[in-house]
Amino acid sequence: MDRKRRPGSQKNPSILSHEFFIQNHADIVSCVAMVIVLGLLFNSTQPLASYFVTLGHNTTSIFTQQPSTVRYNYGIRDLCVVSFYTLICIIMHAVIQECALDKLNRRLHLSRTKTSKFNESGQLLSFYIISAAWGIEIFRRENYLNTFPSTWLEYPHSELTYFTKFFFIIQISYWIHNFPELYFQKIKKEEWGRRITYSLLYLIAFSAAYLLNFSKVALYLAVPHFIVEALFHFSRLFYFADKTTVSGFGFTCWAISYVLVRLYSVIVIVLTFWFGLADNRANKTVDLAKGNFNTYPVRMACLIGGSLVQIYMMWNYINLQQKRLKERMELEEIAKKKRLDQAKKEDSSASAGGGKRTTPQLRKKKL
Q1: Tell me: the pLDDT tens digits for 192-232?
Q2: Does residue 1 belong to any structural domain of this protein?
């Protein structure tokens, strides 16, 4: 799958070497995932393989609930599921890279730095679009748009539908898979800090929402954020493709919507953790049996943590806008200097041409 040789790589790297593992990592991971899936076909290995492939911790009671309303909780078995779907994310990353992004890179002839950013935006764009569509479908199925107060009135949301739980499993798996991809894709160490930072923030946010049963507020925050981020990376791809008209319009829409989503996120965080859950404290202590974590320390940690993340994102946004403004001013200054130099050259050529025309006239006067 991922057999494309990178510049400077060995033609036939030795087995078990770093280069061999990097070039063939998708095939190796695919074999591991296939072994797990094949385990479902045999009675002796089916119970063990099901721990990795299927969702566990089903809480549905066939005596008190309808079979159509299957509900799930979380538990230690989720670690096996996350590890398996992390392998699937690595495979899908390689498929998107080879089938789409590598072909586009060969057409655009980008530099190495731009190629790395182009690949990053292409991967994130595909994931953000899928995640946003998935989240919207959860809102439609669960009728969340008309029941926002239930975010705190019906807390804890300890039992999730299959569709919702699988959403959080994929989110956690995807952001975990970003860490080995730094090695598989030979990302420059200068980019490691930025990529590790946002991957870690996503991983902590979704893991905390999943484990503390704040899945509903996480969906309210994640879906608008994914839509805005998809718009940014969509515009970024067109920017690298030199489609300045489309990218300029996209960046303008992103700049406006980004600020609005940050304001919306702060409002949702404050309404939920400062006002809503403060009035809905069934227990003053953590109740693991019921999955209730609505205590003052937990709420303050979520409130402060969520607010700090929004401040951090706005700070990066302001720095980015300042950087773009500075680059635009520098380009305008360079263009202005070029126009002045061109005008000076035209004046000097015109004066030189005028001197040549007057020379014969002077000679006639002398004669």
Answers
A1: 999 999 999 999 999 999 999 999 999 999 999 999 999 99
A2: no
3-state secondary structure at position 330: helix
User: pLDDT exceeding 90 applies to what percent of the chain?
Assistant: 61
CA distance 272 to 152: 6
Q: For the chain, what is the domain count?
A: 1
Is residue 212 a part of any domain in this protein? Answer: yes
Domain that holds residue 249: 55-331
**Residue 287: beta bridge partners?**
292
For residue 326, what pLDDT band results from cuts at 50, 70 and 90?
confident
- Site of tokens 């009728």: 143
Q: Where does residue 226 fall: left (phi above 0), alpha (psi -120 to 50 degrees), or beta otherwise?
A: alpha
At 269-291, the pLDDT tens digits run 999 999 989 887 656 688 888 88
- The bridge status of strand 71-72 relative to strand 160-161 is antiparallel
Q: Tokens for 26?
A: 């998708």
| Cβ–Cβ < 8 Å for 181, 96 | no
Q: How far apart are CA 214 and CA 302, in angstroms?
A: 10
- Tell me, yes or no, whether 4 lies in a domain: no
Can the peptide bond before residue 224 be classed as cis, meaning omega within 30 degrees of 0? Answer: no
Give CA–CA dist 208/210, Å, rounded.
5
